[in-house]
């Protein structure tokens, strides 16, 4: 048994903090816990910001956040967990981007920070104080990092692209008559 280092403790703290916040946000979406709107309310919100169908989008986002967050906190399947959480936060960042960077103005600062931290943990690995380490890294292999990010990137780009196209179509439909 090798001893834990400061790096391992630091990774544990990052995983617990980031994973805990992500899991709580996902539980708000999925179950209405912690004052959240639940799946129906989140689905309505998702529709209002261009993600359709809303309920399916809410479920996918909630599962990526809750599942990815819980797995990150545990240090289990870290490449897939971090990539899933990063993808969900990229979708959230797309919603907040028109408001600028800072969270106080409704910007994407918080979502970007969570996503980048999750991605960093996926790349770095969970450290020795993790279920991945305990299980011999059976679901935390080096090749899993690029595969998890490639799959997540493809899905995230497709979803955000469809959202942006939907929003453009809606804006074009709202344009008034040019000539009367």
Quick synopsis:
This protein has 180 residues and is mainly α.
Shape: elongated
Task: Give the rounded overall mean pLDDT.
Answer: 94
Structural class: mainly alpha
Number of strands: 0
- Alpha carbon gap, first and last residue: 80 Å
Q: Could you give the order of the helices and strands?
A: HHHHHHH
Task: Work out the helicity level.
Answer: over 70%
Strand fraction equals under 5%
Number of helices in the DSSP assignment: 7
Give a short account of the largest sheet.
Answer: none
Point out poorly predicted stretches.
none
- Rg over C-alpha atoms, rounded to the nearest angstrom: 18 Å
Question: How would you characterize this protein structure?
Answer:
This protein is mainly α. Helices cover 71% and strands 0% of the residues. The protein is built from seven helices and no strands. α4 runs parallel beside α7. The chain is elongated. The mean pLDDT is 94.
